[in-house]
Amino acid sequence: MVQFWDSIPDNLQNWALDQQVFFTASAPLTGKHVNISPKGLPSSTFSIFGPNHAAYVDATGSGSESISHVYENGRITIMFCSFAKSPRIMRFFCMGKVVEWDDPRFDGLLRKMGKERIEGARAVILLDVFKVQTSCGFGVPLLTTAPTSEEGDTVETKPVLLDRDTMGHWSHRKVETNTLLDYQAENNSSSLDGCPGMRSAMRDHGERVWLALMKARIRKIGTQREAVLVGIFLGMALLLSAQIMLRSLGHQG
């Protein structure tokens, strides 16, 4: 169900641009907020330059979460999903850069993207795609239409979202064949970055949960390099201050 690539497959580039909407996800290194934003038609605002390079035009909005997060740590994920008959989800895991509207590179990037200068556009977000993931998309509803009224030869309709039923059918088959827990053990025991996942899946995968949690905690502490460096600097500063104070007291004595 899940496939990974180190670049954007040629046969999926047009599929991504044909979707009705795409989403961006980002988060700060510290804080409580994880941001998810829907964006307009990819064909109008998104461009794929090559297997590992893409960009989108960022319109002025009520917040600037994505821009702030990309400035801080560069991490951003783009997600496309199909609401049409054939389901699919595709994610671009990226490192991003912000090019604001007053940057000399901005107009050139819009031309490279084949986009007109968009009223209210505040930035182009450049994307360095380091991993691509596709999955079934069974849980994404089907967008269709349903009649609301009929007058003579005219039938008015409205858009509706319908459950595909495919996720339930897939799960039912896994339960019937007694393979659901095996699937969870294989796919749900950890995240892409190795963070511990479902505890039951970890146990079924043969892992010692307490050991995995301890390793994750040590890794988390070890990756907080800035905090470690600041701690070392403050420790050295305190030690130096103490030595100066002791020398001063010694001279006074």
User: From the helix content, strand content and strand pairing, which structural class follows?
Assistant: alpha+beta
State the domain count. Answer: 2
In percent, how helical is the residue content?
25-40%
State the CATH class of the largest domain: Mainly Beta
Give the H and E element order: EHEEHEEHEEHEEEHHHHH
Largest sheet: 8 strands, antiparallel
Keywords: Membrane, Transmembrane, Transmembrane helix
Transmembrane segments: 227-246
Protein name: Pyridoxamine 5'-phosphate oxidase putative domain-containing protein
InterPro entries: Split_barrel_FMN-bd
Task: Output the keywords.
single chain, 253 residues, alpha+beta, Pnp Oxidase, Chain A, 8-stranded antiparallel beta sheet, two-stranded antiparallel sheet, 9 helices, extended, Pyridoxamine 5'-phosphate oxidase putative domain-containing protein, transmembrane, transmembrane helix, Split_barrel_FMN-bd, membrane
How would you portray this structure in words?
- The protein has 253 residues and is of the alpha+beta class.
- The protein folds into two domains: 3-135, Electron Transport, Fmn-binding Protein, Chain A (Pnp Oxidase, Chain A, Roll), CATH 2.30.110; 178-243, no CATH class.
- 38% of the residues lie in helices and 31% in strands.
- The protein has nine helices and ten strands.
- The protein has helices spanning 10-17, 42-45, 65-73, 106-113, 166-176, 180-187, 199-204, 209-223, 225-252; strands at 3-5, 22-26, 35-39, 46-50, 53-59, 75-81, 89-100, 121-135, 142-151, 154-162.
- Strands 1, 2, 3, 4, 5, 6, 7 and 8 form an eight-stranded antiparallel beta sheet that branches. Strands 9-10 form a two-stranded antiparallel ribbon.
- A hairpin with a 2-residue loop joins strand 4 and strand 5.
- It is extended and about 105 Å long.
- It starts with a strand and ends with a helix.
